[in-house]
Design goal:
single chain, alpha+beta, Rieske Iron-sulfur Protein, 2 domains, 7-stranded antiparallel beta sheet, 11 strands, rod-shaped, binds FE2/S2 (inorganic) cluster
Length: about 350
Protein backbone atom coordinates (compact mmCIF):
# COMPACT_ATOMS: atom_id res chain seq x y z
CA UNK A 1 0.00 0.00 0.00
CA UNK A 2 1.23 3.41 -0.98
CA UNK A 3 -0.25 5.21 2.02
CA UNK A 4 1.80 3.05 4.36
CA UNK A 5 5.04 4.17 2.86
CA UNK A 6 7.65 4.78 5.49
CA UNK A 7 8.93 8.33 5.60
CA UNK A 8 12.55 8.96 5.76
CA UNK A 9 14.21 11.38 8.08
CA UNK A 10 14.80 13.75 5.20
CA UNK A 11 11.07 13.81 4.40
CA UNK A 12 10.27 14.38 8.02
CA UNK A 13 12.73 17.25 8.15
CA UNK A 14 11.34 18.70 4.95
CA UNK A 15 7.85 18.53 6.37
CA UNK A 16 8.98 20.14 9.58
CA UNK A 17 10.72 22.96 7.73
CA UNK A 18 7.62 23.49 5.67
CA UNK A 19 5.60 23.66 8.82
CA UNK A 20 8.03 26.19 10.25
CA UNK A 21 7.60 28.40 7.22
CA UNK A 22 3.85 28.02 6.53
CA UNK A 23 2.20 27.26 9.87
CA UNK A 24 0.47 24.21 11.17
CA UNK A 25 -2.28 23.94 8.53
CA UNK A 26 -0.01 23.27 5.55
CA UNK A 27 1.70 20.05 6.72
CA UNK A 28 -1.66 18.60 7.73
CA UNK A 29 -2.53 17.89 4.10
CA UNK A 30 0.39 15.59 3.27
CA UNK A 31 0.02 13.93 6.60
CA UNK A 32 -3.51 12.83 5.87
CA UNK A 33 -2.52 9.74 4.06
CA UNK A 34 -0.20 8.36 6.73
CA UNK A 35 -2.77 9.37 9.34
CA UNK A 36 -5.32 7.14 7.72
CA UNK A 37 -2.93 4.33 7.43
CA UNK A 38 -1.87 4.76 10.99
CA UNK A 39 -5.43 4.82 12.24
CA UNK A 40 -5.95 1.20 11.28
CA UNK A 41 -3.18 -0.29 13.38
CA UNK A 42 -3.89 2.23 16.06
CA UNK A 43 -7.45 0.90 16.43
CA UNK A 44 -6.22 -2.61 16.91
CA UNK A 45 -3.37 -1.80 19.24
CA UNK A 46 -5.21 0.80 21.31
CA UNK A 47 -7.69 -1.76 22.55
CA UNK A 48 -5.02 -4.31 23.43
CA UNK A 49 -2.43 -2.13 25.06
CA UNK A 50 -2.26 1.13 26.89
CA UNK A 51 -1.36 4.34 25.21
CA UNK A 52 2.25 4.72 24.27
CA UNK A 53 4.41 6.48 26.79
CA UNK A 54 5.84 8.62 24.05
CA UNK A 55 2.44 10.10 23.17
CA UNK A 56 2.94 13.03 25.48
CA UNK A 57 5.65 14.77 23.45
CA UNK A 58 3.67 14.17 20.29
CA UNK A 59 0.60 15.84 21.74
CA UNK A 60 2.50 18.83 22.94
CA UNK A 61 2.40 20.88 19.73
CA UNK A 62 -1.26 20.00 19.13
CA UNK A 63 -2.35 21.10 22.58
CA UNK A 64 -0.35 24.28 22.75
CA UNK A 65 -0.73 25.22 19.10
CA UNK A 66 2.92 26.30 19.01
CA UNK A 67 5.15 25.03 16.25
CA UNK A 68 7.58 22.32 17.31
CA UNK A 69 11.19 22.94 16.59
CA UNK A 70 13.33 20.70 14.41
CA UNK A 71 15.00 19.30 17.48
CA UNK A 72 11.67 18.37 18.97
CA UNK A 73 10.54 16.67 15.81
CA UNK A 74 13.77 14.66 15.62
CA UNK A 75 13.47 13.73 19.28
CA UNK A 76 9.93 12.52 18.79
CA UNK A 77 10.86 10.55 15.72
CA UNK A 78 13.74 8.89 17.49
CA UNK A 79 11.58 8.15 20.52
CA UNK A 80 8.96 6.54 18.33
CA UNK A 81 11.52 4.61 16.45
CA UNK A 82 12.97 3.26 19.66
CA UNK A 83 9.65 2.47 21.29
CA UNK A 84 8.12 0.98 18.20
CA UNK A 85 4.61 1.10 19.57
CA UNK A 86 3.81 4.80 20.00
CA UNK A 87 1.87 5.58 16.79
CA UNK A 88 -1.50 4.83 18.37
CA UNK A 89 -1.74 8.09 20.24
CA UNK A 90 0.22 10.20 17.81
CA UNK A 91 -2.27 10.19 14.98
CA UNK A 92 -4.99 11.24 17.32
CA UNK A 93 -3.08 14.22 18.59
CA UNK A 94 -1.46 15.46 15.47
CA UNK A 95 -1.75 14.14 11.97
CA UNK A 96 1.79 15.20 11.22
CA UNK A 97 3.18 13.33 14.19
CA UNK A 98 1.07 10.28 13.37
CA UNK A 99 2.31 10.38 9.85
CA UNK A 100 5.86 10.44 11.15
CA UNK A 101 5.27 7.48 13.48
CA UNK A 102 3.18 5.41 11.06
CA UNK A 103 6.00 4.14 8.88
CA UNK A 104 7.79 2.77 11.92
CA UNK A 105 4.78 0.77 13.14
CA UNK A 106 4.74 -2.09 10.64
CA UNK A 107 8.41 -2.58 11.25
CA UNK A 108 7.85 -2.77 15.03
CA UNK A 109 4.90 -5.14 14.70
CA UNK A 110 6.90 -7.72 12.77
CA UNK A 111 9.40 -8.52 15.49
CA UNK A 112 6.59 -8.65 18.04
CA UNK A 113 4.77 -11.25 15.97
CA UNK A 114 7.98 -13.04 15.33
CA UNK A 115 8.70 -13.59 18.97
CA UNK A 116 5.21 -15.04 19.26
CA UNK A 117 3.78 -12.89 22.00
CA UNK A 118 1.45 -9.90 22.20
CA UNK A 119 2.86 -6.48 22.57
CA UNK A 120 3.38 -5.70 26.19
CA UNK A 121 5.12 -2.36 25.85
CA UNK A 122 8.15 -3.69 27.74
CA UNK A 123 11.47 -3.24 25.99
CA UNK A 124 13.20 -6.58 25.53
CA UNK A 125 16.91 -7.05 25.47
CA UNK A 126 18.81 -8.64 22.63
CA UNK A 127 19.50 -11.87 24.55
CA UNK A 128 15.83 -12.60 25.12
CA UNK A 129 14.99 -11.84 21.51
CA UNK A 130 17.75 -14.22 20.31
CA UNK A 131 16.59 -16.93 22.72
CA UNK A 132 13.02 -16.64 21.47
CA UNK A 133 14.23 -16.76 17.86
CA UNK A 134 16.35 -19.86 18.51
CA UNK A 135 13.47 -21.58 20.16
CA UNK A 136 11.29 -21.24 17.08
CA UNK A 137 13.92 -21.42 14.44
CA UNK A 138 16.66 -23.79 13.46
CA UNK A 139 18.68 -25.28 16.27
CA UNK A 140 21.94 -23.46 16.74
CA UNK A 141 25.04 -24.40 18.53
CA UNK A 142 24.42 -25.92 21.94
CA UNK A 143 26.60 -26.54 24.92
CA UNK A 144 28.04 -29.92 25.83
CA UNK A 145 25.51 -30.38 28.60
CA UNK A 146 22.57 -29.65 26.28
CA UNK A 147 23.93 -31.66 23.41
CA UNK A 148 22.32 -35.08 22.87
CA UNK A 149 24.52 -38.01 23.62
CA UNK A 150 26.04 -39.50 20.54
CA UNK A 151 25.47 -43.14 19.73
CA UNK A 152 28.37 -45.39 20.62
CA UNK A 153 30.57 -46.17 17.62
CA UNK A 154 30.16 -49.54 16.09
CA UNK A 155 32.94 -52.01 16.86
CA UNK A 156 35.17 -52.66 13.92
CA UNK A 157 34.70 -55.91 12.17
CA UNK A 158 37.84 -58.03 12.08
CA UNK A 159 39.45 -58.02 8.69
CA UNK A 160 40.08 -61.31 6.89
CA UNK A 161 43.49 -62.86 7.17
CA UNK A 162 44.36 -61.95 3.60
CA UNK A 163 43.71 -58.30 4.27
CA UNK A 164 45.53 -58.40 7.59
CA UNK A 165 48.58 -59.96 5.98
CA UNK A 166 51.35 -57.49 5.84
CA UNK A 167 52.00 -56.15 2.39
CA UNK A 168 55.21 -57.37 0.79
CA UNK A 169 58.06 -55.25 1.73
CA UNK A 170 59.81 -53.56 -1.07
CA UNK A 171 63.52 -53.41 -0.71
CA UNK A 172 64.53 -49.89 -1.12
CA UNK A 173 67.38 -49.58 -3.51
CA UNK A 174 69.94 -47.20 -2.32
CA UNK A 175 70.95 -44.93 -5.13
CA UNK A 176 74.68 -44.67 -5.70
CA UNK A 177 76.32 -41.82 -4.04
CA UNK A 178 77.09 -39.01 -6.39
CA UNK A 179 80.68 -38.46 -7.14
CA UNK A 180 81.93 -35.71 -5.01
CA UNK A 181 83.30 -32.97 -7.21
CA UNK A 182 86.87 -32.20 -6.54
CA UNK A 183 87.45 -28.92 -4.89
CA UNK A 184 89.88 -26.35 -6.13
CA UNK A 185 92.26 -27.04 -3.28
CA UNK A 186 92.18 -30.76 -3.94
CA UNK A 187 92.82 -30.22 -7.63
CA UNK A 188 95.79 -28.01 -6.86
CA UNK A 189 97.07 -30.59 -4.40
CA UNK A 190 96.68 -33.36 -6.97
CA UNK A 191 98.51 -31.25 -9.53
CA UNK A 192 101.29 -30.58 -7.05
CA UNK A 193 101.52 -34.25 -6.24
CA UNK A 194 101.68 -35.13 -9.90
CA UNK A 195 104.51 -32.64 -10.46
CA UNK A 196 106.38 -34.00 -7.48
CA UNK A 197 106.02 -37.53 -8.75
CA UNK A 198 107.05 -36.52 -12.27
CA UNK A 199 110.09 -34.59 -11.08
CA UNK A 200 110.97 -37.35 -8.65
CA UNK A 201 110.66 -39.89 -11.41
CA UNK A 202 112.87 -37.83 -13.72
CA UNK A 203 115.52 -37.46 -11.03
CA UNK A 204 115.31 -41.15 -10.18
CA UNK A 205 115.63 -41.99 -13.86
CA UNK A 206 118.66 -39.74 -14.19
CA UNK A 207 120.36 -41.24 -11.18
CA UNK A 208 119.57 -44.72 -12.47
CA UNK A 209 121.07 -43.93 -15.87
CA UNK A 210 124.16 -42.47 -14.20
CA UNK A 211 124.54 -45.57 -12.05
CA UNK A 212 124.18 -47.87 -15.06
CA UNK A 213 126.74 -45.85 -17.03
CA UNK A 214 129.20 -45.95 -14.16
CA UNK A 215 128.77 -49.70 -13.86
CA UNK A 216 129.34 -50.23 -17.56
CA UNK A 217 132.43 -48.05 -17.46
CA UNK A 218 133.81 -50.08 -14.55
CA UNK A 219 133.13 -53.34 -16.40
CA UNK A 220 134.87 -52.04 -19.51
CA UNK A 221 137.86 -51.00 -17.47
CA UNK A 222 138.05 -54.44 -15.86
CA UNK A 223 137.74 -56.08 -19.28
CA UNK A 224 140.60 -53.94 -20.53
CA UNK A 225 142.72 -55.05 -17.60
CA UNK A 226 142.11 -58.74 -18.42
CA UNK A 227 142.68 -59.43 -22.19
CA UNK A 228 140.87 -62.09 -24.20
CA UNK A 229 141.87 -65.70 -23.71
CA UNK A 230 141.17 -67.65 -26.91
CA UNK A 231 139.98 -71.16 -26.37
CA UNK A 232 142.07 -72.58 -29.14
CA UNK A 233 142.89 -76.23 -29.48
CA UNK A 234 146.30 -77.24 -28.30
CA UNK A 235 149.06 -76.63 -30.83
CA UNK A 236 150.30 -80.19 -30.50
CA UNK A 237 148.07 -83.15 -31.17
CA UNK A 238 148.53 -86.80 -32.14
CA UNK A 239 146.97 -88.29 -35.28
CA UNK A 240 147.87 -91.97 -34.91
CA UNK A 241 150.52 -94.33 -36.23
CA UNK A 242 152.24 -94.18 -39.63
CA UNK A 243 150.43 -97.38 -40.73
CA UNK A 244 147.20 -95.45 -40.65
CA UNK A 245 148.38 -93.31 -43.58
CA UNK A 246 148.81 -95.34 -46.75
CA UNK A 247 151.13 -94.19 -49.56
CA UNK A 248 149.71 -91.54 -51.89
CA UNK A 249 146.77 -90.92 -49.53
CA UNK A 250 145.60 -87.47 -48.34
CA UNK A 251 143.83 -87.61 -44.97
CA UNK A 252 141.18 -84.86 -44.65
CA UNK A 253 139.47 -85.83 -41.39
CA UNK A 254 141.56 -83.44 -39.33
CA UNK A 255 140.66 -80.40 -41.40
CA UNK A 256 137.57 -79.35 -39.46
CA UNK A 257 139.16 -79.67 -36.04
CA UNK A 258 142.80 -78.84 -36.64
CA UNK A 259 143.00 -77.33 -40.13
CA UNK A 260 145.62 -79.74 -41.44
CA UNK A 261 146.02 -82.33 -44.17
CA UNK A 262 148.12 -85.38 -43.38
CA UNK A 263 149.71 -86.61 -46.64
CA UNK A 264 151.77 -89.67 -47.43
CA UNK A 265 153.42 -88.54 -50.70
CA UNK A 266 156.53 -88.18 -52.65
CA UNK A 267 158.62 -85.05 -52.57
CA UNK A 268 161.86 -84.79 -54.51
CA UNK A 269 162.02 -88.61 -54.87
CA UNK A 270 161.59 -89.29 -51.14
CA UNK A 271 158.42 -90.86 -49.63
CA UNK A 272 157.41 -88.69 -46.67
CA UNK A 273 154.54 -88.09 -44.28
CA UNK A 274 154.00 -84.35 -43.79
CA UNK A 275 151.31 -82.03 -42.51
CA UNK A 276 150.06 -79.25 -44.87
CA UNK A 277 148.41 -76.08 -43.55
CA UNK A 278 144.85 -75.58 -44.99
CA UNK A 279 145.34 -71.89 -45.75
CA UNK A 280 145.63 -70.54 -49.28
CA UNK A 281 148.76 -68.47 -49.75
CA UNK A 282 146.84 -65.95 -51.85
CA UNK A 283 144.34 -64.35 -49.45
CA UNK A 284 143.83 -67.02 -46.80
CA UNK A 285 140.88 -69.03 -48.08
CA UNK A 286 140.58 -72.75 -47.38
CA UNK A 287 141.18 -74.86 -50.48
CA UNK A 288 139.50 -78.23 -51.04
CA UNK A 289 141.13 -81.55 -51.89
CA UNK A 290 139.88 -82.92 -55.16
CA UNK A 291 140.59 -86.65 -55.10
CA UNK A 292 139.70 -87.14 -58.76
CA UNK A 293 142.02 -84.36 -59.92
CA UNK A 294 144.64 -85.08 -57.27
CA UNK A 295 145.01 -81.38 -56.37
CA UNK A 296 144.01 -78.73 -53.88
CA UNK A 297 141.70 -76.16 -55.35
CA UNK A 298 141.04 -72.81 -53.76
CA UNK A 299 137.34 -71.78 -54.18
CA UNK A 300 138.07 -68.09 -53.83
CA UNK A 301 140.22 -67.26 -56.84
CA UNK A 302 140.94 -70.64 -58.34
CA UNK A 303 144.49 -71.24 -57.20
CA UNK A 304 145.59 -74.84 -57.52
CA UNK A 305 148.16 -76.79 -55.59
CA UNK A 306 149.66 -80.18 -56.17
CA UNK A 307 149.61 -83.05 -53.63
CA UNK A 308 152.96 -81.96 -52.22
CA UNK A 309 151.58 -78.37 -51.81
CA UNK A 310 153.37 -76.60 -54.60
CA UNK A 311 151.21 -74.04 -56.33
CA UNK A 312 150.68 -74.43 -60.07
CA UNK A 313 147.66 -72.28 -61.03
CA UNK A 314 145.82 -69.23 -59.94
CA UNK A 315 146.97 -66.19 -58.08
CA UNK A 316 148.61 -68.01 -55.20
CA UNK A 317 152.19 -66.69 -55.10
CA UNK A 318 153.83 -69.56 -53.24
CA UNK A 319 153.34 -73.16 -52.06
CA UNK A 320 151.32 -74.16 -49.02
CA UNK A 321 153.11 -74.20 -45.67
CA UNK A 322 153.92 -77.26 -43.51
CA UNK A 323 153.55 -77.87 -39.78
CA UNK A 324 156.21 -79.56 -37.71
CA UNK A 325 155.68 -83.31 -37.34
CA UNK A 326 157.41 -85.98 -35.43
CA UNK A 327 157.05 -89.48 -34.01
CA UNK A 328 156.05 -89.19 -30.36
CA UNK A 329 157.25 -91.42 -27.59
CA UNK A 330 154.29 -93.72 -27.96
CA UNK A 331 155.04 -94.20 -31.74
CA UNK A 332 152.22 -91.99 -32.89
CA UNK A 333 152.63 -89.09 -35.23
CA UNK A 334 152.51 -85.77 -33.36
CA UNK A 335 151.85 -82.50 -35.16
CA UNK A 336 152.94 -79.14 -33.75
CA UNK A 337 151.13 -76.20 -35.27
CA UNK A 338 153.27 -73.69 -33.48
CA UNK A 339 155.94 -74.14 -36.06
CA UNK A 340 155.60 -73.79 -39.85
CA UNK A 341 157.89 -74.44 -42.75
CA UNK A 342 157.90 -72.66 -46.12
CA UNK A 343 159.15 -74.22 -49.32
CA UNK A 344 160.36 -70.95 -50.93
CA UNK A 345 162.55 -70.48 -47.92
CA UNK A 346 164.01 -73.99 -48.24
CA UNK A 347 162.53 -74.98 -44.93
CA UNK A 348 160.89 -78.12 -46.28
CA UNK A 349 164.35 -79.68 -46.22
CA UNK A 350 164.21 -79.47 -42.42
CA UNK A 351 163.78 -83.07 -40.99
CA UNK A 352 161.27 -81.64 -38.49
CA UNK A 353 158.96 -80.79 -41.36
CA UNK A 354 158.40 -84.45 -42.39
CA UNK A 355 158.62 -88.10 -41.24
CA UNK A 356 160.16 -90.61 -43.54
CA UNK A 357 158.26 -93.77 -44.35
FE1 LIG B 1 143.11 -68.81 -52.68
FE2 LIG B 1 142.85 -66.47 -53.69
S1 LIG B 1 142.75 -67.09 -51.75
S2 LIG B 1 143.26 -68.23 -54.65
Amino acid sequence: MADKKKMSVAEILAAARAADGKGTAAPAAPADQPAESAAEPAATTAAEKPAAPKSAPAAKPAAGGARPSVADILAMARAKKEAGDAPAAAPAAKPAAAAKAAPAKPAAAKPAAAVGGPKTGVQRDTASILAAARAGAKPGPVSKADAPTRPAPKPREPKPAEERAAPPRTVATVPPKPVKPAKKGEEAEDRRGFLQIALGSAMALGFTALSVTSGLFTLGLARFMFPNVLAEPPSKFKVGFKDGFPSGKVETKYVPQYGVWVVNGDFNGQQQIYALKTVCTHLGCTPSWLEAEQKFKCPCHGSGFYKDGVNFEGPAPRPLERYAIRIADDGQLEIDKSRTFQEELGQWADPESYVTV
